[in-house]
Design brief:
Layout (H helix, E strand, L loop, with lengths): L11 E6 L3 H9 L3 H6 L3 E6 L7 H8 L3 E5 L4 H9 L7 E5 L14 H20 L2 E4 L2 H7 L6 E3 L19 E5 L6 H5 L2 H10 L3 E5 L15 E2 L6 H10 L4 E4 L13 H8 L3 E5 L15 E3 L3 H13 L1 H18 L2 H9 L3
Parallel strand pairs: 1-2, 1-3, 3-4, 4-5, 5-6, 7-8, 7-10, 8-9, 10-11, 11-12
Length: 345
C-alpha cells in the first residue's frame, strides 16, 4: 500500500532571525518557504533579538524543529543551542558573505568592519553546531569547505521580475546602481566614466542609491539622484516597481568582493535593465557578453564605452534586457530553491 503524503508533511523549520532579514527572505522565507508550505511543511521566523521569555519556554517552542541560522546569532542563543543540541533536528548555517575578509579589505566603513568582524569571531561556533553549511557562491563554498565537512552551494533565487519592457520606449533612460555603502569604492571607481557619459547625454538620468554616503567623486555629476538606502521591505516594493534601462555592477578585486554571489544580475533584471558587470567571478559564470549583459575590465574607459554602446543601439539593448530576464527566471527559479531545502526531508 502506497501513501500519497508529501515527504514534507509535518516537517518543521524555524529560521532563527538575528536581523539578517534580506538574506533570510531571499534564500528561504520568501523563495522556498511558500512552496514548502504547500507540501505540508511548517515554517516560521523566530525573532531571537526580541525574545525575552525564559530559556525553558524557548526550548519548548523550538523542540524538534530544524533550525536555520542565517549569518549570525546572539551569544545567548549560541550557548542555549550548544547546551541543548539534542533537542533540535537538523541545524543549517546559511552565509552569503566572507565575514572575515572585511579586515583584509581597505576602504570599507569602520562601523561595517567592526560589525562583521564581530560576526566572524562567532562563526566557528556556528559552524561547529551546523549539520550543513550553505553558501551563496563557489568561492565561499571552497573557503568554508576547509572548515566544515558538509558545505553546499545555493545560488540566489529571484523574488520578482517585470513581465514587460515598455520602459525602453521612454525618451529619458535611467542608469542605476543600487549597492550598499560597503561598495562605495566600487562605484566611486567609475566616476570618470559616469561623468563623461552624463555630460555627453542630456536625456539620461543616473541613480545611485547611497544617500548621504554617496562618494565625493560622484557629487558633481549632472542629473544624478542619490536616494537614501531603504528598509528591506520598502526596497522590495521599490525594486518591483522602479524601472531602469541600464544597471551597473562594478566589483573590484578585493578579498571581500571575492565572496559575492551573482545576485546583482537578478537585481538588475528585476528592475528591467541590462547589466554591465566586472569581468570576473561570479559574473563571468553566468553573463554571456553581448547577449544578456556586458562584461568589462576595471578601466573606467571600458565602462564608458560599454554604457555608450547600450545607449547608442537602444533596440539591441532592449533585446539584451529580454534575454537577461529570461536567464534570471531560469537560474533564479524559486522552485529550484525550494527543491534544495526539501531534499533529504
Amino acid at each position: 500500500m502506497t501513501s500519497d503524503a508529501s515527504p514534507l508533511e509535518g516537517v518543521r523549520w524555524v529560521a532563527l532571525s538575528d536581523g539578517a532579514r534580506p538574506t533570510e527572505d531571499i534564500y528561504f522565507l520568501e523563495s522556498a518557504a511558500p512552496r514548502m508550505r504547500e507540501q505540508g511543511a511548517v515554517i516560521e521566523r523566530f525573532e531571537t533579538r526580541r525574545y525575552r521569555l525564559p530559556a525553558r519556554l524557548a526550548l519548548r517552542r523550538l523542540a524538534g524543529a530544524n533550525l536555520l541560522i542565517v549569518r549570525s546569532l546572539g551569544e545567548r542563543w549560541v550557548r542555549l543551542i550548544e547546551r541543548h543540541r539534542e533537542r533540535f533536528g537538523r541545524i543549517v548555517y546559511l552565509i552569503d558573505d566572507d565575514l572575515g575578509a572585511v579586515t583584509r579589505t581597505s576602504g570599507l566603513p569602520d562601523a561595517y568592519v567592526s560589525r562583521l568582524s564581530g560576526l566572524a569571531a562567532r562563526q566557528p561556533r556556528l559552524l561547529a553546531l551546523a549539520d550543513e553549511v550553505v553558501a551563496c557562491c563557489d568561492a565561499l563554498v571552497a573557503q568554508l569547505a576547509r572548515e566544515h565537512a558538509n558545505v553546499s552551494l545555493l545560488t540566489p533565487p529571484m523574488l520578482s521580475s517585470p513581465d514587460e519592457l515598455s520602459h525602453f520606449a521612454e525618451v529619458q533612460w535611467c542608469i542605476g546602481y543600487h549597492g550598499t555603502r560597503a561598495h562605495r569604492d566600487d562605484i566611486a571607481h567609475l566616476a570618470p566614466a559616469l561623468s563623461a557619459v552624463m555630460q555627453g547625454h542630456q536625456d539620461i538620468q543616473l541613480e545611485v542609491m547611497m544617500g548621504r554616503h554617496l562618494p565625493e567623486a560622484l557629487l558633481d555629476i549632472p542629473r544624478l539622484t542619490a536616494p537614501d538606502a531603504m528598509p528591506w521591505q520598502e526596497f522590495q516594493h521599490y525594486q518591483a516597481t522602479r524601472r531602469l534601462q541600464i544597471g551597473l555592477a562594478p566589483l573590484l578585486d578585493t578579498p571581500f568582493n571575492r565572496g559575492k554571489s551573482w545576485i546583482k544580475f537578478l537585481d538588475i533584471a528585476a528592475m528591467g535593465g541590462v547589466g554591465i558587470y566586472s569581468r570576473r567571478a561570479p559574473f563571468t559564470e553566468i553573463v554571456e557578453h553581448g547577449v544578456d549583459g556586458l562584461l568589462v575590465g576595471d578601466d573606467p574607459q571600458e565602462w564608458q564605452a560599454a554604457i555608450e554602446r547600450l545607449l547608442t543601439d537602444r533596440e539591441a539593448t532592449r533585446e539584451m534586457a529580454a534575454r537577461a530576464q529570461q536567464k534570471a527566471r531560469c537560474i533564479g527559479s524559486p522552485d529550484t530553491c525550494a527543491d534544495f531545502w526539501a531534499r533529504g526531508m
